Amino acid sequence: MMDSDWLILRKMRPTIDRIASNVAAKDKLAVDFGCGSQPYRSLFELRGIVYRGADIKGGDIHISERGCLETADSSADLVLSFQVLEHVRDVSQYLKEAHRVLRDNGVLVLSTHGSWLYHPHPEDHRRWTRQGLLAELAHYGFETTECIPLLGPLAWTTLVRLTCGYQACSRVPLIGRALAKILAVVMNARGYLEDLITPEWVRRDNACVYVTVSRPAGSQP
Question: What domains, with CATH codes, occur in the chain?
């Protein structure tokens, strides 16, 4: 609870863990499209999935400057995309590539922001409503079977204040880190309680993050 991102990560990891369990089969190939530090790699490898990280720099598979995955058509059982889509300049290219490398009965597991602060890593281009995200995925040939909202508006507004306050406290000489951690505990506890009392129908269309599970349209599970 002493980290500024605890509120969202405490829900994200169990959600991805459950999805990994549902789609797992030994020796399936998963391509993590924009893998970064690969925070969820172990969740898939523990289930016997062959994990390959893809990124512009580093990773097992190179992503070209045009956004192309250097791997064959219909070569992956899973395409993973965690908090990448909002940073992608060319969403069309990104989702077309995800569709291209997936096998006909493959699964796309994707998370992205609904509502959140501007955060360039190195760029930050968009946010999604639930309806808009599902429509975008459908436009590029995906049928979404799950769209899971994480953190409703009461909690994520608290998280925004915590994020700003945490950064401000961290800059205070000598005692800054301690102040930031105290603030994190207080605000995380508040956000946790706020999310408990948020009705599901409110969270559904006003989430901080959406986690989706999709298949190429027309494919069989």
Answer: 6-152+201-216 (3.40.50.150)
